């Protein structure tokens, strides 16, 4: 990253601006590689896991979250594809592998009880207890302040971090890197001394410690290729303008709700199937969720047939060839999903109980409630670069080299 600064300065000298249209090939923001792990174990219950996560969002949107809600025995996120950032904690650089989550905002470690955090000279025990309920799972533990490094350039001296004493629903990661808005941390701390309300997120601290100049996170996910070594994704903290991870312009839209919520409409075959409505963008949700009416209209047009084994709708080769773009219109810009982007990655059919060679649509119906009419999951985010901008309270999207890729 150090290499890019002379180039940026040179651009400034030549053009008088840093955001030159002659974008550098590297980004001026600070990047964190995110490894994509594909779990080859078969029989994952993708749809149930997603529904359970969607339910927790709905409960919060409808403000009727109660601990009496029946807890379901499903993982918090699907265990098939996960995006993991490697971070270090403490003066002795203990390594943890955290799930990147825009749908929650507490950062915590210790999900693997055989791999414990050991307080070091930089660790400060706060006397506070932290509890985060994710709907289908939760963790409970102790809150520390410690040094947290997301990369060599992104070192937070004083990050509030949860250390799990007990968790349910997290099996293949050490914890969560919560990059949702800080409001989602409200009420997660049982403060012993001062009445603690929210917990500054990693993005908040990178900004307040002067490491990034704007509280912005860009996310570049990559479609699953089925190759043994999946390409890496990337998180970019700070200035995302000019990143090589997207093409064209970023379209921004105002952030809605406590989540990374946006307003969008959806159309298929040129017909609007969901009028402009509010929903969320979520890295922890796999599929695209749309309101039942919109979903039915979409499925009717495609001719998809419900498949019991996967919980998804199956289409034939002929129906696949006849698919039109499924278009998400956000901030006045169309973000089409090509036919290839609308189907579940064929190489992962067996993982979800499907059959080799079959075609399943990667969309699910959801009962809309106010402020939660849809969830754009990572089947959308793998096709479009996304930007979560807390400084300007907005969310952005841009096309990428993968937008039209035919990897599925
Ligand atoms: C921890 O990592 C930093 C670089 O991020 C390095 O400067 C420091 O020496 C490392 N400390 C130990 C104990 O390995
Ligand atoms: C660390 O951050 C917390 C807030 O998260 C703050 O209360 C505390 O005073 C900070 N400690 C230092 C040493 O700056
Ligand atoms: C948990 O940690 C142990 C000890 O480091 C390791 O062997 C094991 O693979 C870890 N489990 C998971 C699910 O990461
Ligand atoms: C793969 O998924 C299964 C659940 O089907 C889970 O038990 C297992 O821990 C996962 N493996 C890894 C390495 O994440
Ligand atoms: C889809 O088709 C079925 C029967 O063909 C019909 O009952 C249903 O109303 C249609 N749904 C929509 C949203 O068009
Ligand atoms: C994807 O393909 C469409 C149709 O050919 C084209 O209009 C669009 O510019 C392409 N998008 C990208 C990001 O390549």
Automatic annotation (TrEMBL):
Q: Which residues form the Peptidase A1 domain?
A: 83-398
Residues folding into a coiled coil are none
Record's signal peptide = 1-19
GO terms (molecular function) for this protein are:
peptidase activity
The record's annotation in InterPro entries points to: Aspartic_peptidase_A1, Aspartic_peptidase_AS, Pepsin-like_dom, PEPTIDASE_A1, Peptidase_aspartic_dom_sf
Q: Name one GO biological process term.
A: proteolysis
Task: Note one Pfam family from the annotation.
Answer: Asp
CDD domains given for it?
pepsin_like
Domain of life, per lineage:
Eukaryota
Question: What keywords is this UniProt entry annotated with?
Answer: Aspartyl protease, Hydrolase, Protease, Signal
Keyword presence, Hydrolase: yes
Per the record, the similarity remark reads: Belongs to the peptidase A1 family.
PANTHER family in the record, alphabetically? BETA-SITE APP-CLEAVING ENZYME, ISOFORM A-RELATED
Name of this protein: Acid protease
């Amino acid at each position: 990253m150090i290499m890019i600064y002379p180039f940026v300065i040179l651009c400034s000298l030549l053009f008088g601006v840093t955001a030159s249209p002659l974008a550098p090939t590297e980004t001026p923001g600070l990047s964190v590689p995110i490894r994509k792990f594909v779990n080859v174990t078969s029989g994952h219950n993708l749809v149930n896991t997603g529904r359970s996560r969607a339910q927790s969002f709905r409960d919060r949107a409808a403000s009727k979250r109660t601990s009496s809600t029946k807890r379901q025995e499903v993982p918090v996120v699907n265990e098939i594809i996960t995006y993991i950032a490697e971070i270090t904690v403490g003066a002795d650089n203990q390594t943890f592998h955290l799930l990147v989550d825009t749908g929650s905002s507490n950062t915590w470690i210790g999900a693997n009880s055989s791999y414990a955090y050991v307080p070091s000279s930089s660790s400060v025990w706060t006397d506070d207890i932290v509890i985060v309920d994710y709907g289908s799972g939760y963790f409970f533990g102790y809150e520390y302040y410690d040094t947290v490094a997301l990369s060599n350039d992104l070192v937070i001296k004083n990050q509030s971090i949860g250390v799990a004493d007990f968790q349910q629903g997290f099996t293949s990661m050490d914890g969560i890197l919560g990059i949702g808005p800080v409001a989602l941390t409200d009420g997660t701390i049982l403060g012993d001394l001062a009445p603690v309300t929210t917990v500054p997120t990693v993005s908040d601290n990178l900004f307040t410690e002067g490491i990034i100049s704007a509280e912005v996170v860009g996310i570049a996910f990559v479609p699953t290729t089925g190759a043994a070594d999946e390409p890496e994704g990337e998180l970019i903290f700070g200035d995302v303008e000019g990143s090589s991870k997207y093409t064209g312009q970023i379209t921004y839209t105002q952030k809605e709700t406590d989540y990374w919520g946006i307003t969008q409409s959806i159309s298929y075959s040129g017909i609007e199937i969901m009028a402009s409505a509010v929903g969320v963008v979520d890295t922890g949700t796999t599929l695209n969720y749309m309101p039942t009416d919109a979903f039915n209209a979409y499925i009717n047009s495609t001719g998809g047939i419900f498949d019991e084994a996967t919980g998804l709708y199956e289409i034939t080769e002929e129906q696949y060839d006849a698919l039109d773009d499924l278009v998400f219109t956000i901030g006045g810009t169309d973000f089409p999903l090509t036919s290839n982007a609308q189907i579940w990655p064929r190489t992962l059919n067996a993982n979800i109980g499907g059959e080799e060679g079959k075609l399943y649509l990667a969309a699910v119906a959801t009962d809309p409630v106010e402020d939660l009419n849809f969830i754009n999951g990572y089947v959308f985010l793998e096709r479009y670069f996304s930007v979560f901008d807390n400084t300007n309270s907005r969310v952005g999207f841009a096309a990428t080299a993968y937008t039209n890729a035919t990897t599925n």
